[in-house]
Amino acid sequence: ALQNKYSIATMGADGIGPEVVDASVQVMKKLVELDGSFELAFENFDWSSDTYKKTGKYIPDGGLDALKKHDAILFGAVGAPDVPDHISLWGLRLAICQPFQQYANVRPTKIFRGTSSPLRKAEHGDLDWVIIRENSEGEYAGQGGRSHRGQPWETATEVAIFSRHGVERIMRFAFESAQKRPRKLLTVVTKSNAQRNGMVLWDEVAAEVAKEFPDVKWDKMLVDAMTCRMVLDPKSLDTIVATNLHADILSDLAAALAGSIGIAPTSNLDPTRQNPSMFEPIHGSAFDITGKGVANPVATFWTAAEMLTWLGEEEAAKKMMEAVEAVTERGITTRDLGGSAGTKEVTDAVCQELEKVY
Ligand code: NAI
Ligand code: MG
């Protein structure tokens, strides 16, 4: 038996999620067949908004224990037109990220060969970023409440949490990530001029952790000014770290600047590796195109490649991305990238391209 055998939990969940997850399982099976140096076992979990509508829960009792037995989770997207988004998000995605301590959310972005950026001056190679999003606290920690419901004086709070522990671990992860990339360049996004408690702690801890990484060059940007810099001077950026909320917004901007939200992946990592990490495309369930066979599977292909890299199969992941980029370069793309191919055509083309890469 092979040493490198990984068990993957797949969970397409809602909308186009199952379509793009199935497509990437097809590509990974091809990859394993051609590569021969590692094995993947897939187990599908059918938790979705339908489960919620039938049972009142997204995750059945004992579900997290079953999930925890796997080496990684490949997730699609959650969200249905008839379920409020805060119920679906907290019911499934955050209900996995938080107990599994997936505190680092990593979002690489680049301009693929054969695709174009809406930025007039940016070409392939000019925009190559990794955004690291704090994934456990900040504005999405779940602290806050609502009182005096329905009254004119109704009040709601959403408290942003910044703990020294939480900030330190994400800063260390960000500096390590920057150090591993050729440019060794990190931009710390903040808003400490206006938010004078949490964000000032954020800045102070960044400066402390920076001392452990003398070879990493770093700078600090206010989040509003950061949006301008991303648009006007994309080449000046490499690795970026930001709070849960700031990075959520900046990474959608990043994906749009790179060409489409249909290509961008994200990893929810437990860097301690005590729990499985979860990998997903950044897009949502896209009910406007569900079932039409036109969803761009490239984001989930890149997602799968990120998962394989995390598991230690970096060479195979690189080959998979070579095949994906060869396909975009040949112009076999879905509508969001200006092409006319469907999900299946793109997927089959990647499988064929893989044969050439091996
Ligand atoms: P969305 O990402 O689902 O769709 C935005 C637009 O991009 C749509 O026009 C859609 O057709 C297009 N699009 C998205 N992915 C695409 C792909 N792979 N190929 C081609 N076109 C693609 O965002 P939206 O519409 O705001 O949200 C829909 C649902 O998804 C909501 O319920 C939302 O809460 C949920 N959502 C879930 C996420 C997750 O599970 N992590 C992330 C974002 C949204
Ligand atoms: Mg988002």
TrEMBL record:
Residues 7-350 form the Isopropylmalate dehydrogenase-like domain. The keyword Zinc does not apply. It comes from the Eukaryota. InterPro entries: ICDH/IPMDH, IsoCit/isopropylmalate_DH_CS, IsoPropMal-DH-like_dom, TTC_DH. Keywords: Magnesium, Manganese, Metal-binding, NAD, Oxidoreductase. It catalyses: (R)-malate + NAD(+) = pyruvate + CO2 + NADH. Its cofactor is Mn(2+); Mg(2+). Signal peptide: none annotated. One of its GO terms (molecular function) is D-malate dehydrogenase (decarboxylating) (NAD+) activity. Belongs to the isocitrate and isopropylmalate dehydrogenases family. PANTHER family: D-MALATE DEHYDROGENASE [DECARBOXYLATING]. NCBIfam families: TTC (TIGR02089). This is D-malate dehydrogenase (decarboxylating). It comes from Paraphaeosphaeria sporulosa.
